[in-house]
Specification:
- The structure holds three protein chains of three kinds.
- Helices cover about 70% and strands about 0% of the residues of chain A.
- Chain A has a two-stranded antiparallel sheet with strand order 1-2.
- In chain A, about 45% of the residues are buried.
- Chain A has ten helices and two strands.
- In chain B, about 65% of the residues lie in helices and about 0% in strands.
- Chain B has 16 helices and two strands.
- Chain C has a domain of about 170 residues.
- Helices cover about 30% and strands about 15% of the residues of chain C.
- A five-stranded antiparallel beta sheet of chain C has the order 1-2-3-4-5.
- Chains in contact: A-B, A-C, B-C.
- Chains A and C meet through helix 5 and helix 6 of A and helix 1 of C.
Chain lengths: ~230, ~350, ~260
């Protein structure tokens, strides 16, 4: 792989994980993810399923992009995404049954998650399978770390635990009781308003950080980046 | 909201807020008389937390702390939170509610004048959604001595049923759900003395004290008649209509007007000049909407009272209401917009 | 995306690699054929996955079912194939479920141990509460679990042990209750034997009444139910037994807590 390609892939990763983060910047496809981010395990599980769908659908669409007629591309994209999600749904049902019962309707709903179709249409349809797979995965992973943070915060504030339900994925593992047995739990964090309040605080934190970085750069034009590139 | 010259604005906010605090005193006195001195401690806690949070947020936002603290708006929020919560909540709940109201409900939206939601009602909703069981435990009338009340507020072990009684709204809803009818539930001995009178022995005195304070606000021209009249009128009309159609399952207007937070909401909460509608017609629509939603939540919902949720829901509609009810500019006739406007 | 003419491909495919540019009808036909091919290919993918997952799904569903039953009846108490040893109950008003109900029969060394079945409380605070009940051959309740409910979070949801902060959970007080008239199937507030949480009586009351009704209906027929061949319909067992006693009926004797 030549340096240019490597730089391009690095760029894709940086955009997915931070600059164009699905959850913090684009705010796309948040409905099912806010609904299941009541605990770390739920949030990460559904995010992982979304990462898988996004990477696979990106790769498949990119590989088939020369065969897909332009005017019927949307139905074909949906067909590909729906087929992949159905397979994933069946796999969850068969091998992660308890988690399947918890995530329920939200696995099939990945089909309607607009971020999946958005990346397929905007990126995979015009790029190589490798780049498209990585783009889907990076976008999904950007979603995953935010959702993991959100799920942890909601679970910790709402019930004082972390990793509850972990035994559904890793048999024998135990959740952590972090805030003591007596902690009553601030229920609103687990209910829908808590998702919006905490996501708002996360977005505000990111914006404050970006504003801070911009200010530092403006104040010090001879920043290390310039030195390095000089 | 405030007229020029702006030099008078701070003083005017302060005057308004102090008058509101004074107007709350009769109802606070009645609640202390009925439910014990716990409320006084809650008022003190809420005030201290509100002022500390206000000062902290102002400092963080690099605004002048002393002047804004002196306007009294944080105190009004704190007092409204304290009077609408059950007075025997453990201290950390009122700390949490007040801090949420000031930090998230008020300052994260830009401070006084910018908050789209009524901060006191935000605090109430956060607490009732998070701790519905504790939030429905009101002390029985003249129940419990002062020492026991302070012990509870300090977070001591709570002996259920020993000191708590259901509010009239709660008792009615539970009774109706159990298959009873309004008349029998209201007379049933099983729900205790809560239905001694129109809206529960004692509760009508609380309501009347709030109404008295509200009339003072009206007389001092702190609030206009639109919101209280539209709110109470709509509530009475809906309750009257429903109980006329199905008197066995819907309580009448007198009950709804005197129970729960109706009077407090009508005069002190819905009239918040920041988060409420500002045009005269808008105020009528805003208040009627609150009454309708509150009645629906009381009649069909799961929580003890619906006023807080109703206020927040109508707060969301305020920009639309204000935009659609802007009075025409002087010289233009209604219904004949000129030029390009369609 | 560029404003492509109907037969231009997105991406980097050279035009000469395509069939000769057809007319509008040809384009439509070509699209239809390709869409059909894609549909066949991805349906095949789904079919293959479905076949591969079918057996594991069946096993998972059964394991889940047994795990659920294990919460109301310890697995060590029986040794038969619980999921196969069933009878079909007719739609009984006392169970609160429309339509037939599958009843599992637990045995140990061939001897009757317990009956496991579902029931429903229609009068929860926000709709029906679905219950799984295990009734021992002796006539006492082995355990009850709430399978599905929509009670208010933090208020009525303590009927679900996963949400209950009490220790032991509220729902465990059903274990060991017998179905003789000695048990008063009411919450203490109504003069019964069952604890409840202040401020959320309705959920507890609904569950207590439903378990009482269901137990009272099934218990008198339990010998007949154990005697039926596996897979049989149990209509007869309920025609011969007398009408189910009223679960709300007052009992003169009180059971100490």
């Amino acid at each position: 792989m030549n340096p240019e390609e490597r730089a391009a892939l690095g760029d894709i990763g940086r955009k997915g994980l931070w600059e164009n983060n699905t959850a913090l910047v684009q705010l796309l496809g948040m409905c099912p993810l806010l609904a299941v981010s009541t605990s770390f395990v739920n949030a990460v599980s559904l995010s992982l399923a979304t990462v898988l769908v996004m990477a696979l659908s990106g790769g498949v669409v990119a590989a088939l992009r020369t065969l897909i007629p332009h005017e019927i591309r949307i139905p074909v994209f949906i067909l590909i995404i729906a087929a992949l999600v159905t397979c994933l749904d069946l796999a969850f049902n068969a091998w992660l049954h308890e988690l399947y019962l918890v995530l329920g309707i939200f696995i099939p709903l990945i089909v309607t998650n607009c971020i999946v179709l958005a990346r397929v249409e905007a990126f995979a349809a015009k790029n190589s399978p490798l780049a498209a797979t990585w783009d889907g995965a990076a976008m999904g992973l950007g979603l995953l770390w935010v959702l993991a943070l959100l799920g942890s915060a909601r679970e910790l504030i709402g019930s004082g635990t972390l990793f509850s339900g972990i035994q559904m994925i890793l048999p024998g593992a135990h959740p952590l009781q972090l805030l003591g047995e007596d902690y009553r739990g601030l229920l609103i964090a687990i209910l829908p308003p808590g998702a919006f309040i905490l996501l708002g605080l996360l977005i505000a934190t990111r914006n404050a950080w970006m504003a801070h970085v911009a200010k530092v750069r403006a104040a010090a034009p001879h920043a290390p980046t310039d030195v390095a590139s000089a | 909201m405030y007229n020029s010259p702006f030099l008078r604005q701070k003083a005017s906010v302060r005057r308004v807020m102090v008058t509101v605090l004074v107007a709350m005193l009769p109802a606070i006195a009645v609640q202390v008389w009925l439910f014990g001195i716990g409320l006084l401690l809650q008022l003190a806690i809420a005030s201290a937390v509100a002022l500390a949070c206000e000062a902290g947020m102002l400092a963080l936002r690099r605004r002048p702390v002393a002047r804004a603290l002196g306007d009294g708006s944080a105190l009004v929020t704190a007092w409204l939170i304290a009077v609408c919560l059950p007075p025997l909540l453990p201290w950390w709940m009122i700390v949490l509610g007040t801090a949420f109201a000031i930090v998230i409900g008020k300052h994260l939206y830009g401070g006084l004048g910018q908050n789209p939601f009524n901060p006191a009602m935000l605090a109430y909703c956060v607490l009732i959604v998070s701790f519905p069981a504790l939030m429905s435990q009101w002390p029985g009338l003249h129940g419990g001595d002062a020492a026991a009340q302070l012990h509870w507020i300090a977070g001591g072990e709570r002996t259920l049923d020993a000191m708590t009684g259901a509010t009239p709204l709660d008792a009615l809803r539970t009774g109706l759900h159990g298959g009873g009818e309004v008349a029998s539930v209201m007379q049933s001995a099983a729900v205790g003395p809560a239905f001694g009178h129109v809206a529960g022995a004692g509760w009508e005195w609380v309501a009347l004290a709030w109404a008295a304070g509200g009339l003072l606000l009206l007389a001092m021209r702190i609030i206009t008649w639109h919101i209280p009249v539209a709110f109470l009128g709509t509530l009475a009309a809906i309750a009257g209509l429903a109980s006329a159609i199905d008197g066995a399952h819907f309580a009448g207007p007198a009950f709804h007007l005197l129970a729960g937070g109706s009077m407090l909401g009508a005069f002190f909460i819905a009239t918040d000049p920041v988060s409420g509608a500002t045009t005269p017609r808008g105020k009528l629509i805003f208040a009627a909407g609150i009454a309708l939603i509150a009645w629906l939540i009381r009649s069909f919902g799961a929580y003890p009272d619906g006023i807080a949720f109703a206020v927040l829901l109508m707060n969301i509609c305020v920009p639309l209401i204000d935009q659609k009810t802007q009075p025409p500019v002087f010289g233009h006739k209604l219904g004949k917009p000129d030029g390009g406007a369609k | 995306m560029s404003d492509a003419t109907p037969d231009t491909q997105p991406g980097d495919v050279p035009a000469q690699a395509l069939p000769p540019a057809p007319g509008a009808a040809g384009t439509a036909m070509r699209s239809a054929v390709l869409l059909g091919l894609f549909t066949v290919a991805f349906t095949a993918l789904m079919a293959v996955t479905y076949e591969a997952a079918r057996e594991p799904i069946r096993l998972s569903v059964e394991a889940r079912r047994l795990e659920l039953i294990g919460q109301v009846l310890p697995p060590a108490d029986y040794d038969n194939a619980l999921l196969e040893d069933t009878v079909q109950l007719p739609a009984l008003g006392a169970l609160g479920i429309d339509g037939p109900v599958t009843l599992h029969r637990a045995r140990r060394a061939g001897e009757p141990v317990a009956l496991v079945f579902e029931a429903q409380a229609p009068d929860g605070y926000s709709g029906a509460i679905r219950l799984l009940i295990a009734l021992r051959a002796s006539g006492e309740v082995a355990g009850v679990r709430v399978i599905a409910h929509r009670e208010t979070p933090g208020l009525g949801d303590y009927i679900d042990p996963a949400k209950d902060r009490a220790n032991p959970p509220w729902i465990t007080q059903f274990a060991g209750r017998d179905t003789s008239p000695a048990t008063r199937w009411k919450v203490r507030k109504d003069g019964g034997d069952f604890a409840y949480m202040s401020g959320a009586t309705i959920s507890a009351r609904a569950v207590v009444h439903a378990v009482g009704r269901a137990a009272a209906a099934i218990a008198p027929a339990r010998d007949a139910l154990f005697g039926l061949p596996a897979g049989a319909a149990a209509d007869e067992a309920f025609k011969t037994s007398p009408a189910a006693p009223d679960a709300h009926g007052d009992a003169s004797r009180s059971t100490p807590q």
